[in-house]
Amino acid sequence: MFYKELAEEADRYLDTLQGIRRELHQIPEFGLELPKTRERILASIKDLGEIHLSDRQSSIALLIRGAQPGPTVLLRADMDALAVQEDTGLDFASTNGYMHACGHDLHMAIGIGAAHLVRTHADELKGNVVVWFQPGEEGHGGADIMLEENMHMISGDKPIAAYGIHVTSSWQPPRTFGGKPGALMASASDMIVTFKGRGGHGSSPWMAKDPVSAMTEAINALQTMVNKRFNAFDPVVINVGWIKAGDDHTTNVIPSHASFGATVRTFSPGMLSQVQQYAGELLDGIASAFGVEVDYEIGKFATEVVMNNPETTDRTRRMVQEIWGESAWMEWPHPIAGAEDFGSIVREIPGTFVFLGASPESVDWQTAAPNHSNHAVFDDAVVPSGAALLASLAFDTLNDAAK
What we know:
Layout: H1 3-11, H2 14-26, H3 35-45, E1 50-53, E2 60-65, E3 68-78, H4 104-120, E4 126-134, H5 142-148, E5 161-168, E6 177-179, E7 182-196, E8 200-201, H6 211-229, E9 236-245, E10 253-254, E11 257-266, H7 271-290, E12 293-300, E13 306-308, H8 310-324, E14 329-331, E15 336-339, H9 342-348, E16 351-357, H10 383-402
Parallel strand pairs: 3-4, 3-5, 5-16, 6-14, 7-15
Antiparallel strand pairs: 1-2, 2-4, 6-16, 7-11, 7-12, 7-13, 8-10, 9-11
């Protein structure tokens, strides 16, 4: 097959893809409704195949049919930005209060480039390719909505494989791809807890029912629970992100309510249900001991663990090394606690998610501002490589299926 030639062809797209990425970087949008972003993507893919849009969100599914019959492969690019005020000093920086601080602008450019490569060589395509441009990855369930709407089924068949790429401004050397079979990224969900007591005077806590003490006890106890009730080799992370109680102008009042919110990360299917059980037992017990009531919600809007399929991951590793050499692949020794709703996709379709180092050559990737930072900077010169890998994986998967 022509995989190295495909990568060389993608390199010739560099100026165009950089231009698209920088336009998208200046118009970041948040959540599920991304009208300007969708309009810009549609302008770049309008002649490439059948376009399917959603009424529930700003998603796009592009179907490219090959000249030869065969199964379908899904390629995915996410679209949404973060509620972060950009502080990079770039001449194409966002000024609207949102920021592509996680590199989704590069992902969209990668998806557009991959779609053009596939369409250009559709006469050699032994099946179909569906390219997803997905909103709402940053905790809004965009992938699940696309699955509910059967956007993966637009060819008439369920895809036999799915692939996605995530750029990183740090974590790994630039222009390298990295990943592993099995668990790659954690499941993520929220824990929202409210203790309800009885307010009173700070000088006489025995005459009130203090929810603050119960809350602080719970925050500490949850950390001990993680260590004592879960296997250290199948880790659980519970990290409190906010607490609320009382009035910051008053110190002599015991409030009636105290609450906190935490993120919960797990690395294997089914582990979240154990967190729900054990944490619930703990919170109920603490509330009883302090004579207060407790309400909690654990696991709402949970993302799935990103479980990379061994076969598609082997293919991805082989493809990277065949095109760019042995050193272009980094085998990850363990998963990371970050989450991605690509986990919902690989729950339904065997597939692989990989990372692409995109720190600029002018910075040290080991100390560079990470994804989600308002200072995060990405080198969009890596976009053609990402596009070439996705297109190559589609061709290679369909070629093997035709044998």
